[in-house]
Amino acid sequence: MTTESSTYPIGRPGVPWGAEEKNAWLNEQTQKRSYFYDVLAVVERLAEDFDVVQYGELAYAEYGFADYPLVLLKSKNWQLEKPTVIVTGGVHGYETSGVHGALRFLQTEALNYTEQFNVLVAPCISPWGYETINRWNPETTDPNRSFLRPSPAPEAAQIMDYVAAIGGKIVMHIDLHETTDTDNSEFRPALAARDGIVNDNWNIPDGFYLVGDSQDPAAAFQKSVLDSVAKVTHIAEADESGKLIGVPLAQFGVINYDGKKYGLCMGLSGAEYVTTTEVYPDSANATPEECIQAQVAAIVGGLNYVAAHTGS
């Protein structure tokens, strides 16, 4: 278990942030990488095999950054009578393998499933977070607590609106995430400071794990995902309390949250089979490339299970 100080340089302990503190935080943010080069340029090269749809825009030039087009890719032979599967990445923009795992899936595996399924991939839901390496958006709102109506985050609201309008049956949704050492050095302390609370959970699991939906755990589906990932990287063991990130283990490598209650992206579609992946790129036993491959393996494991259990 990693333990860090909960001290944060903005705000006063125990006092939630107001506009002044939020502006001070925003003023510290800088662009560190390019969504346009790292993501949109790759999407452009995929346009021969997939339909590219701009489903919205984040008007963040007002904050001194860019206006970000929000894009997704969908299989060309889209048919309403076919089951639909959704992959999302970059809900937390700083979680790199989520974005690049979604793109790698499109580059290497997605076409293998387009006869069975309508495939929809939104590789980077939070491009400002990707560029500035942040969990929040410029308003200090966490998109992965914002899949609610009305949503407090445009990152969540715009993909929710698009998915709600596509029609047909959505059978699977996999949301790609990471848990990193910066969760303890930056993001957990920032959250505690923003909300005027004390953080008491510093656990960062060493390895890959899943977050299922407590309202529909789909244990066999989760196991299929983990079995596929285990061929690429190691699965996280529970801590001495039988927990991962402070949550009791539901099965090996899996904890469960109420996705809709907490506004998590896993609640986006109401699909029968849902999960959130978590890899640990800072592990001594994994590389960033293995983390990307693990994300792809997770999607493939899920798709293979769903294909065998939906008659597709």
TrEMBL record:
Keyword annotations from UniProtKB, A to Z: Hydrolase, Metal-binding, Zinc
Superkingdom of origin: Bacteria
Chain ranges of the Peptidase M14 domain: 31-310
InterPro entries: AstE_AspA_cat (IPR055438), Peptidase_M14 (IPR000834)
GO annotation terms (biological process): proteolysis
SUPFAM superfamilies, A to Z: Zn-dependent exopeptidases
MF terms in GO: hydrolase activity, acting on ester bonds; metallocarboxypeptidase activity; zinc ion binding
Entry annotated with the keyword Hydrolase: yes
One Pfam family per UniProt: AstE_AspA_cat
Active site (UniProt): 278 (proton donor/acceptor)
UniProt cofactor(s): Zn(2+)
Family annotation (PROSITE patterns): PEPTIDASE_M14 (PS52035)
Family listed: Belongs to the peptidase M14 family.
Name listed for the protein in its UniProt record: Peptidase
Phylogenetic lineage: Bacteria, Pseudomonadati, Pseudomonadota, Gammaproteobacteria, Alteromonadales
